Amino acid sequence: MQFNDALLAALRGARHLVVFTGAGVSAESGIPTFRDALAGLWTQYEATQLASPEGFADNPALVWGWYEWRRMKVLRAQPNPAHAAIASLAGLTPRLTLITQNVDDLHERAGSADVIHLHGSIHQPRCFTCSQPYAYPPGIPDEPEGGRYLEPPRCGRCGGRIRPGVVWFGESLPAKAWNRAWQAAQDCDVLMSVGTSSLVWPAAELPEIAARRGATVIQVNPGETALDGWAAWNLRGPAGEVLPGLLEAMR
Ligand code: BV8
Ligand code: ZN
């Protein structure tokens, strides 16, 4: 892919670069994007039904089974060249803030530090009743492809059900993470959005906040998204190819 000289100049000259990622950055690691994760057992459900406290209270085994299926994929996955390129980018920019909507740890495993997780982590379950943190037993149990109902474990302290450590629909984002992300969006001069459908709020607002303050917005996504109109450049391709190419061209 050829890159526009002005785009390369904007990236090379960035004082503060924000990289904002969604499920598309982990797609080439074999982790289904948020929408694609509604496979198998869960096809007939809306994401907002499963990824919500009501959905969990209503059918804990259905929701816990979904998260365990997804967690196994994360445990089996490896970071892909997109995660690696973003980790390397930090060494080429005076200041880089990495904000992700993803609940996997592939950015960290690729070497990125201080990742801001707006929607929590699949690796930090806690009690649904008393919020006591829960430690998963070691190992990667086999997960039937189509998924299965799985009763969540119980809290050692109060006997309540264990829930995934993610932010569900209708739940507020962790205040510290949101404030840091909001500040970075206000302060940055370049924001690159990678692999997100830009549909979920308030996270989806971050690129707009940056654009309104005069930052240059770059988007990496094979498809069109709600962000297209705000982006100065829409790089149409898979992140695992576009980002390494961009890094090469910047050097
Ligand atoms: C809140 C964790 C209130 C869980 C997630 C109406 C208007 C505006 C807002 C609302 C509204 N109605 C309700 C709301 C609020 C709601 C919301 O936004 N709903 C949406 C559906 C409209 N938001 C909330 O509820 C938030 N909380 O508002 O709280 C409040 C306030 C105060 C006090 C109390 C309460 C919380 C939302 C968080 C939900 N949790 N994730 C989990 O993972 O299971 S959201 C989840 O979906 C992701 O984290 C992500 O944020 C979002 C979208 O996923 P994406 O990452 O974008 O993935 P997706 O599959 O959608 O797209 C993948 C993209 O990748 C595609 O564009 C594709 O083209 C691209 N791609 C594919 N392959 C590649 C690629 N790109 C690059 N390379 C590739 N190879
Ligand atoms: Zn408890």
Give a short summary of the structure:
The chain is an alpha/beta fold and 251 residues long.
Radius of gyration over all CA atoms, rounded: 18 Å
CATH top level of the largest domain is: Alpha Beta
Number of strands: 8
Number of helical stretches of at least 4 residues: 10
Q: Write out the distinct hetero groups bound to the structure.
A: ligand BV8, zinc ion
Structure in words:
Helix 6 (81-89) packs parallel to helix 10 and helix 8 runs parallel beside helix 9 (205-212). Strands 3-2-1-6-7-8 form a six-stranded parallel β-sheet, sandwiched between helices. It has a two-stranded antiparallel sheet with strand order 4-5. With 251 residues, it is of the alpha/beta class. The mean pLDDT is 96. 40% of the residues are buried. It is built from ten helices and eight strands. Strand 2, helix 7 and strand 3 form a beta-alpha-beta unit. The protein has two domains: 1-30 and 79-121 and 173-251, TPP-binding domain (Rossmann fold, 3-Layer(aba) Sandwich); 32-76 and 126-163, 2-Layer Sandwich (SIR2/SIRT2 'Small Domain'). 34% of the residues lie in helices and 12% in strands. Bound molecules: ligand BV8 and zinc ion. Zinc ion binds next to loops.
